[in-house]
Structure formats: structure tokens, C-alpha cells
Amino acid sequence: MSPFPGIVRATLAKDLRLEWRSRDAINSMLFFALLVVVIFSFSFDPLAEQSRRIAGGLIWVAFLFAAVTALNQTWARELRNQVLDAYRISPAPANSLFLAKALGNFVFVGVLEALMTPLFILFYNLRAIGPGWQLLPVAVLGTWALVVNGTFFAAMSLRTRSREIMLPLLLFPISIPALIAMVSATTNILTGEDSARFWIVFLATYDVVFTCIGLLLFELVLAAE
Amino acid sequence: MKIGPNGSTGMHRSLTSGKLRPENRNREPSLTFSLPLTDTNAAAVVSPIVSLTNLVKQFGRFAALRGVTAEFAARKLYAIVGDNGAGKTTLLRALAGLTQPTRGQLSILGSPDIRSVCRHIGYMAHPSLLYDEMSGMENLRYFARLYEIDDDRCCASAIAAVKLDPALERPVGQYSQGMRQRMSLARALLNDPKILLLDEPFSNVDVPSAREMVSLLAAMRDAGKTIFVVTHQADLLLGSADEIVKMEAGKIVSRASGAPRAEPQ
């Protein structure tokens, strides 16, 4: 039997345990997202109809920037005491580490979204005019799009001297198509002006492609000195 | 009680009892036991467990290893000594598969592909390679899964072998340096490796604890493991090491037998 699922499970459980004890990633993400919500709520009239049009962009940009702090944190703890070397010398497949890290980051960003969404609704007086249930697949697929690329590029920038700067430089350009899809789908659902179906399919395709690329190439990233 | 995934019981017995296993190693208990590199080890030299041919490792323009050629027989304890920058750690990392040689060949257990034999290699680095936020047992339980070891008793045995308490719930970050070194050694022993690579295992460890670790290493060597110890404290290994390998400027410049330790009166 392949050791892949067992190692993914063990690594994911380890990451969740470490985050539960340190709360490094969640705290920094929450702080950042909260700042965005509060500052932007002062910048324009949140009760205006216009806020429904810009809320999609606002929400996803806040989650994207907040996720970057989590992505850096989850790999940084692998560098402390050079624990990553212990993984590298083991027979465990590299892509199981990648998948477990991506799933862990998905959970962290998912928790952030679950906590911040009520605040966004409250501060910006949001309600969906289109089919509101479609926000769920958009949130799931959009979050996965952010974390799957983020996990990959955070690992790539791990050994660079200024990895906090390098990660956004690598991640943001490649995330633009996914970000456009997330924002368009969310805006369409909130305003009810157009169908979000195309963007949901687009996001699903994007996720499949980049998950496969990450799984295939991660061994090279991990082996790099 | 088994310690390894292959069901071998030798290490656990020999480590916990502290007794040597005469069937594995037939040494004379005299002061002059060490090192006939010619006759008694002839069979081992014919098929060395580690073989290096003109190994070169460059970091940019700096050559950390400059054409290292050597063969190492199995079931021996090698102390690798040398000044800072001599290439000791780079050599150990190359043996562990953590660094790719720029040129030259490296063969471990008869295979040039270290990945294929990594199950048989244990590596203890200068940093602990442990998560500070987790207890020793939690750390080892995670690393055991990477080697497909599901039995918690293996983790407990490895911890007990280095004379720590498996039930200790304190996170590793709160351990003393000596305890951390021991736990790091336990992690390296977890997969019951045939080859053990230890980088500065005695640094920041008090002398009695270091001597205990040396006895442990000698017992493991007697149980059949091949051990490479990079150290600046070669005197601790005198009498226990089979060979002192001296490195200088990225090359092995001498290989001498470990001097005998005086018998207590």
C-alpha cells in the first residue's frame, strides 16, 4: 500500500497541532484582515449600493494578502532547527509534504474566511441578490487556488535571502487569473447581474492544473539546496 | 521488543542493556584492540559500505570538498576531525543525500542513488531537526510515520535508548541542550539505520553526558552499525573510534587508528 495518504495525514496533523499551539499564522492573518475591513469601511460609504460591486474585490484582496503571511509562517517553522532536512533524508515522497502543507494552509485560510465573512457582511451591509449558495464553491475553489500556488512558491522562496518579499513577487502574477475569477464570480453573485458559473468552472480548471503542476514539480523544489 | 521496521531486535537489546554483542564483533578486550586495517578487515574493505571517488563539492567558487577518495568498511566507528571549513559537515551532508556533489562518485551500501538506500541512513545534524513546540514522543511519532513505522513502541524504545523518558510531555523547546542532543540522536536511531551520520553530537553537552553518548555509540557499533562522527572533541572518542579521519581544506589528509583507552585500575 502506498505510504502517501498516511504521510499526508501525519504531516497535516502535525501542522495543525503546531498551529494550535503557536497560533502564529492565524493571529497574523486575522490582524491583517481585520485592519483591511476596518480601514476600508471608513474609506467609503458601506451602505451604498456601490459597496456591493467592490466588496468582491475587497474581500479577496484582503484574504490574498492575509494568506501570504500564513504561507510564510508555515514554511518558516520547517526552517527552525532545519527540520526540513529530516524530511529530505526520509523516504517520504516530496509531494506528500506539498499536499499536506497545502491542505494545512487551506484549513488556516478557511478558518480566517469563516471568521471574517460575518464581519464583512456586517460592515458592508452585504446580501446576495444572485444565488448565494454559489459563494461556497467560489470560496472553496478560490481559497485552494491561493494556497496551492502559495504553498509551492513559499517553498521555492524558502532559501532566498528575503523570502517575505520574494513570495508576493512570485505568487501575485500567477494568481491574477484566479483572482479575476474569484472577484468576478463573487461580484456576479452579490449583484445578481450575471451568472457566476463560467468563473466557477474556470477556477476549478485552474485548481486542477496548478495542483498537478505542484505535485509533479515539488520534488525539485525540495531537493534544491 | 522490536525497534526497527525490519523487525531487528539487536539494537534495542544492546542499547538498553548496555552490553556488547560478541557475535557481531569479535574484539580482543585488550588495550591494543584497534585497527588492523589490513588483515581482519579485508573482507569488509573488498565491499566497503561507503565509497567515495574524487568527490568534489563547490559552493560558487569555494570548493568545500576537493576530490575526496576513500572507502569505509562496515561496522566501524569513524571520527572525522579537522578545523572549521575543512569540509567535514559537507562530507556528512553528501553522505546523507542532503547535498549533491558537484563532481565525483558516491556509493552507499553499493548504490550510487542515496535516495534508494535512505531508509538505512540515520542523520543527526548540528541543529536538532526537531519541532520545538512538540514533545519528544510527538516528534518521533511524526518522523516514524515518514519511515512507515506505525508502532509507538519503536519511538519509546529509541527515546529510552538515549536515556530519556518517553513519557516526558515537555516540549522539546524547553529541553536542556544535552537533552535536545539526545533526542536528536533518538530521532536518528528511529529507523534502525545501518549507517549513522552524526554532526557534532557532543557540542554543548557536559563531559559525563558526552562520555555516556560515546559508550552508546560504541555499543551501537558493536551491534553492527557503521557510525561517522564529525567532531571537534576527538579526545572523547579515543579508544572507542576505530579510525580517526582527519580532513583539511576539503581533503582527507590522514586516517589513523583510534588510540586505545587506558583500562581503569
Tags for this entry?
heterodimer; A: mainly alpha; 8 helices; 82% helix; globular; B: 265 residues; alpha/beta; Rossmann fold; disordered C terminus
N-to-C SSE string of chain A, H for helix and E for strand: HHHHHHHH
The profile of the biggest β sheet of chain B is:
6 strands, mixed
| Biggest β-sheet strands, sense, barrel of chain A | none
Name the shape of chain B in a single word.
Answer: globular
What is the molecular shape of chain A? globular
The SSE order of chain B reads: HHEEEHEHEHHHEHEHEE
Oligomer: heterodimer
Number of H- or I-type helical stretches of chain A = 8
Helix content of chain A: over 70%
Structural class of chain A: mainly alpha
- Count of individual domains of chain B: 1
Separate helix tally of chain B: 9
Q: Portion of residues in helices of chain B?
A: 25-40%
Q: Kindly, what is the distance between the CA atoms of the first and last residues of chain A, rounded to a whole number of angstroms?
A: 31 Å
Give the end-to-end Cα distance of chain B, rounded to a whole number of Å. 36 Å
CA radius of gyration of chain A is 18 Å
User: Strand portion of chain A, in percent?
Assistant: under 5%
Strand order, largest beta sheet of chain B? 5-6-7-3-8-9
Q: Can you count the beta strands of chain B? A: 9
Q: Indicate the CATH architecture of chain B.
A: 3-Layer(aba) Sandwich
The total beta strand count of chain A reads: 0
Task: Describe what you observe in this structure.
The complex is a heterodimer of chains A (about 220) and B (about 260). By secondary structure, chain A is mainly α. Chain A contains 8 helices and no strands. Chain A has one domain (about 5-225). Chain A has helices at about 5-20, 25-45, 50-80, 85-90, 95-125, 135-155, 165-190, 195-225. Chain B is of the alpha/beta class and about 260 residues long. Chain B has one domain (about 10-255): Rossmann fold. Chain B has helices at about 10-15, 40-45, 90-95, 115, 135-145, 150-160, 175-190, 205-220, 235; strands spanning about 50-60, 60-70, 75-80, 105-110, 120-125, 195-200, 225-230, 245-250, 250-255. In chain B, strands 5-6-7-3-8-9 form a 6-stranded mixed β-sheet, sandwiched between helices. A 3-stranded antiparallel β-sheet of chain B has the order 2-1-4, covered by helices on one side. The interface between A and B is medium-sized, with 25 and 28 residues.
